[in-house]
Amino acid sequence: MSTTEQKLQELKTRLLEIGDLNHINALLGWDQSTYMPAGGAEARGRQSALMAQMAQEKFVDKEIGNLLDDLQNYEESLPYDSDDASLIRVTRREYERALKIPPEFIGELK
Hints:
By secondary structure, the protein is an all-alpha fold.
């Protein structure tokens, strides 16, 4: 496996982990809306805030930015609408946007 392929795989793995954290948080929200017993809101709020903050921290990790920088030439060598080029391009746009929001704020917002 080439270095570029390894970096792309690492990016995908990191994005899957972030996606899993967001899905867990969505499950917590669904459970809160449907089955959570009375009196559980405070604990569920803490859990949800922590999951959101962790996902944000993982996404704005400098290593994601480094991977995106390292993959820029690869992205530019691909057809614009290819899966890999689109993944890198969209991730870069979302990453640059996410950098403007501190993870602590995300935790407080939830």
